[in-house]
User: Fold these one by one.
Assistant:
Number 1:
Amino acid sequence: MIKVGILGAAGYTGGELIRLLLNHPEVEIVFANSESNAGNKIYDVHEGLIGETELEFSSEMPFDKVDVVYFCFGHGKSEAFLKEHTIPANVKIIDLAQDFRIKGNHDYVYGLPEIHHDEIAKCQHLANPGCFATCIQEGLLPLAKAGLLTKDIAVNAITGSTGAGQKPGATTHFSWRNNNFSVYKLFNHQHIHEICQTLNELRPEGTPRVIDTLEEGYDKEGITVDFIPYRGDFARGIFCTEVVTLNEAKTAEEIATLYKDFFKGAAFTHYSDKALDLKQVVNTNKALVHTEVFGRKVVVTSMIDNLLKGAVGQAVQNMNIMFGIDETAGLKLKASAF
Amino acid sequence: MIKVGILGAAGYTGGELIRLLLNHPEVEIVFANSESNAGNKIYDVHEGLIGETELEFSSEMPFDKVDVVYFCFGHGKSEAFLKEHTIPANVKIIDLAQDFRIKGNHDYVYGLPEIHHDEIAKCQHLANPGCFATCIQEGLLPLAKAGLLTKDIAVNAITGSTGAGQKPGATTHFSWRNNNFSVYKLFNHQHIHEICQTLNELRPEGTPRVIDTLEEGYDKEGITVDFIPYRGDFARGIFCTEVVTLNEAKTAEEIATLYKDFFKGAAFTHYSDKALDLKQVVNTNKALVHTEVFGRKVVVTSMIDNLLKGAVGQAVQNMNIMFGIDETAGLKLKASAF
Amino acid sequence: MIKVGILGAAGYTGGELIRLLLNHPEVEIVFANSESNAGNKIYDVHEGLIGETELEFSSEMPFDKVDVVYFCFGHGKSEAFLKEHTIPANVKIIDLAQDFRIKGNHDYVYGLPEIHHDEIAKCQHLANPGCFATCIQEGLLPLAKAGLLTKDIAVNAITGSTGAGQKPGATTHFSWRNNNFSVYKLFNHQHIHEICQTLNELRPEGTPRVIDTLEEGYDKEGITVDFIPYRGDFARGIFCTEVVTLNEAKTAEEIATLYKDFFKGAAFTHYSDKALDLKQVVNTNKALVHTEVFGRKVVVTSMIDNLLKGAVGQAVQNMNIMFGIDETAGLKLKASAF
Amino acid sequence: MIKVGILGAAGYTGGELIRLLLNHPEVEIVFANSESNAGNKIYDVHEGLIGETELEFSSEMPFDKVDVVYFCFGHGKSEAFLKEHTIPANVKIIDLAQDFRIKGNHDYVYGLPEIHHDEIAKCQHLANPGCFATCIQEGLLPLAKAGLLTKDIAVNAITGSTGAGQKPGATTHFSWRNNNFSVYKLFNHQHIHEICQTLNELRPEGTPRVIDTLEEGYDKEGITVDFIPYRGDFARGIFCTEVVTLNEAKTAEEIATLYKDFFKGAAFTHYSDKALDLKQVVNTNKALVHTEVFGRKVVVTSMIDNLLKGAVGQAVQNMNIMFGIDETAGLKLKASAF
């Protein structure tokens, strides 16, 4: 049994992680830390869990009793936490925040299993990808690897409200969001960083680099990811379209084959010959991808559940890989479907 | 032109009132007071109003320049406000809070036009009924007047999220409320006060009194209004059922006739021979009522838009009556329908 | 491995059953019958299943190769089917329709595990309870058993749209149902039959019988179940309130204890000390129940997922009991929660 | 009073038109034709209208008694109807279908008031623009007029379910569409025709032409409108983004000024300095537009209510212009806002 500790256990991702791990056949939750909820039953906060566990939130963090720790903090707090606390070297860390996603002065592996399976298997510290970043990358990876990204990429991605977290605010107020639609962080979403990092990592030599427009602006030489995030009026899921203009036209079959080959071994990412809709992935760890071709333009649709493949589902998938067990353990989830 | 001042103009009811009054043919908004928004355009807060008005929120309250003032405060604040401010005797007041709905040491008339039309026409100060209270009363008034309320009344009422106001919180968080359902203030909703007051006012001598269970509990002799409020996953509207058990069975036709006769002259309340659905009233000032009969049981369905007939629509209707103009002025609203 | 055949596999319940059984550790799906879809992949109809199975719909019904057959037909078709087909005596049948729920000239056991566990374990043919019926019964069973049902019972139950099945129509049109609310089959829902049957079965001698008002009308001596079904604007779930008036008041604690004791051994039904909301059960096989007490009135809230505990989840639970395996096998489902 | 006849009065647009015209101060509805509903009350079909009118559907079409006829038929039926019926030359026609939107062997004026005001004022026959087409054009008109459209345009537009009409089907089934998201007619929506027609009409000489990709495919020289339509899980409204790449960068202020100047005289189209959300236009005849600038890229957001500015609201606006009355008559609508 893998012994697990959870930090930030009272938030949305903390709760969803607990929901997964309670049914994971090879996991035991040793502690679920939440200062403000210490002593309360888990199901007092994550209310649907009544009848499934009598576990309580803890103010303790007994790192010596666990094999792996999940950081379910808000962004920026993981790094801060590590400055103030020491986690034994033999304890693996899976960080759900964005603190270590960009390569730098740290040893965290960016955990996108479709391209980093071997590094994940060997790593001690893992940075779990962002939700938008996962969905958009799943849509672009095969084209990136094939060196077909040569012009600016139009990305439109609609997210459910759980992406905005637990804290109530104006744009998550039901009266406002219900039957509403809007954009935010237009061309300015922070996930552009990690998307660019991956696309540049995959691109063959001789193909144009992808510009991190958040760092460099829009005037440099290279390809831009023109990413418009939308707030959808649903709770779970991310639905993306990615429009890529090729240098030379390819047939729909060629593109489909490229995608199928790329995702052949993937545990949760599947190519569909038919058009897709979001609820096919909601409440699962799947990513689904479909393509259509118009002249030199490839239109990709990709979709995930933002809390699962876009957060804790992928984190558990990464844990499974890190501990060398079945990649799908604990992740055979019934889609809610409706 | 009726000159209007609005206090609490930045909240949900304040905004909805402004939306109505901008199109009211006989009204001029003189001031829309909001301390915290003073100097901002109305459409900066009530955003959809761009293009309709350049009016700004004001920190002033020039009562000498208006004919009527609307109190769009939270409950309890109207009375407090009046202790600290003096409003000239010739200025009418329409209070949307519950402060003066129960008869007492004040001269406010409870403004339910279907039964108080004449008093409203003559009054200087008006207490506008609550949203649930309006909807439930519309369903029960004909039976109450006819002395047919003789046993406990089962009331179930589902409200949209706008009933909970503008301040975001756990039960108005989109991620929680979307596709969810729950009850609150079970048998304990404060509108029971005003419903009881009306039912007792209408009941013929010799029929049992209605107990205000919030005051007296459930052990006294009399009829109780067993009211279960539900939180629905929509934004606007209240949908009620009221089940009344008669002493002796009546036919469906007798009950229908009773209702039709009662509402014959009503400007906005209509009896329907067919079953109804909530969206028939959403974004209108209508109340719609339908009845079915099973043995000695009468099942009433009644419905309103909580922000309109349940709040500012009825307030404007009352204003129209108070100023002797067409009762429907400014209230011929297109239902959103979808 | 339990070998399973599914008839009516292309409908809502058929699809949900397949979603469950694909992850059931002790089940193998031998055939999934659908004439009109024969030869198509399961995931062509139940689209979210891409990547989980390559199973195809079959026009065959090899009953000799299975241990159990699920009837996922529309109501009335199970009985008709059995007149035209012979199923070997050793093959168990689980019927999801209402054809055999009422006792009569057949050997089907009414499969409500909270009260019929032993009979289910021994039965060969099982009639799976209706969705509303399950939810309402869970709310009333402890009171019924204790002989506390002595007066008419007010039942209000709101259902999601999946309760209306796959065929599109006026009241399941998104444009109509979205943000809408309505009632239907007021006091006339067919599940009153099975609810009455159970309540009469449980009631101690000397307590009044429950009238099947659909058969006998509203004029007979006895207790009535005054059931108002509502159409909610969500897809999954049933949320009920049941108001019961006792002969003599009991404390909230006495009632809570009664419920806790009653459901002590139940695999999926839990009593909650706190108020509940629907999404705590959505996408799970749970039934959750909560009670509050006002004078002599007990207000129960009960809730289930209509497709799971209200249909195929309970059917699988029953299968597990019938085959003597862990009652929760294949039913440890992650709530969608949001 | 303008005397109006309505053909196809029982559909979504027919109903919405009636809702508008009942409150239009200068209109009298002479007949509302619907074969299948002849003799029924209007409110039997468009149910919310109870209490507003006793008008009945008619099987007659007395064209000699009206000043204008609205065609609320499905696409393709207007032309067919005119082959079989004669409408007097002095009766104006407003066609809501797409039959006469493309210039050809007919005298219908394409009724987009922001650019065709004078032609509309003089015309006898009017082709009312499509919903997507209106929304997208409002977003692009100022750039088109200024000759700034020189590269392929990325258009993403999300529509509510009412855009799919009254007939229930798989993608308007509530159980499917609720909390779902999908694309359809990707790069293939028929409104591309009318958008191209307008953009080419406005483009200054020397700038590249816009290709009608539905006619010519993706291989020709020129600009393409790469339009992805999405099905949103709301009932009313269209929300668009249009990304335009300029030859030379302009400042955000320059672009904002261009838009403000262009829409200065428009009765219902407004430029907003702030980001927008869809519900600002729902249940109104407004179009709202906002722009942001990144390097050489201009990102426009535009939004309308698909049934109003995208259909019958614009039709009434056009009627007002055609009859020389106040352009906003009957169209001062209260936004539903929530």
Note: The radius of gyration of chain A is 20 Å.
Number 2:
Amino acid sequence: MNIGVLGTGMVGNTIGSALVKLGHSVKMGSRTKGNEKAIAWAAANGANASEGTFADAASFGTVLFNCTKGEGALDALHLAGAENLKDKILIDISNPLDFSKGMPPSLFVCNTDSLGEQIQRAFPQIKVVKTLNIVNCEVMVNAARSSANDRGTMFVSGDDAASKQTVIRDFLTPWGWDDVIDLGDITTARGTEMMLPVWVRTWGATGNGHFSFKIVR
Amino acid sequence: MNIGVLGTGMVGNTIGSALVKLGHSVKMGSRTKGNEKAIAWAAANGANASEGTFADAASFGTVLFNCTKGEGALDALHLAGAENLKDKILIDISNPLDFSKGMPPSLFVCNTDSLGEQIQRAFPQIKVVKTLNIVNCEVMVNAARSSANDRGTMFVSGDDAASKQTVIRDFLTPWGWDDVIDLGDITTARGTEMMLPVWVRTWGATGNGHFSFKIVR
């Protein structure tokens, strides 16, 4: 299918390349057409990879991945344009990390709200599915990257049940996530976004960012 | 050793009984001596189980377990009395859950502070070790309760390295926690306390509260 990836950073790169490998046509979007990082990514990923503005990528994709930094997510979606987002699934893997007060980051929204909810409220015409935000991007697209012998759990949150099933079938399953828990509506994104502080501290304590969380049960 | 358990609820009961089984002498403390639940617990747990006020339990124990509800934790410690707490290890397993706005609960402190830090700041004479707060109390005292074939990870947070090692050796290890990550100082308790929202939602989604979190790596 045609997929728009919003964001040209490490997460957008990794997700975009993994989507091309799955056989999809992918357009990477950024603030301005001709972004150097987006051009380099497209050049490295063959005929099914292209680049353009956020609006170009949103218009192109039937499914969109939000790979922006959390603080830029709403801006990027406003630039993408409401008419280009209408009725599309937005897989939101961004986190509301606030680095302005130094390390480790805090969250600029949490507890009684979440970035996933902010996006869904601002753009009611899209179907937000929050997932993958609790692991490093290399683990996102390869669940086995954490361990050859064990597998973490992935969560999905969103108001539209069919969209969550699409995301599980078309992306999480091919990327090796065979234990997925549907937490419920988009308010449950508070829970997974609030895992970021322990993610950051676990990374700091172990020196290993390629871990995942498994619900042992 | 002599251990004081603060709190007479399900968590205090389960922790207290498990400590007696490990061979310790345990005094359960509550707001007033003669609390019915504390008397019943002591009667059910033999000669090494006794009850009294928060101050009695704190004075009795060389190690203390904070098993109060989060909202009552600081009050209980004030009632215990600074002189009874001096130089003791306080294993803080409480969570800052706020049920006042209905279910699911939010946290009354998070992100840039934590209940573990509030306790450490209010009582600098105690050595707070935050741990066990991310699982159901039956799992706290029996890591194998989640799964016969797999084991979750337990985190410890606290400013005093030796106290964390004592807690791991004397309690976490006997209770089956063979994968423990020391996250660092007490500020890292923000991370584990902020796991509560996803704990609550996972419980809701799966109908199973006897799970644990494993860091797959």
Note: Chain A touches chain B through 40 residues (CB under 8 Å).
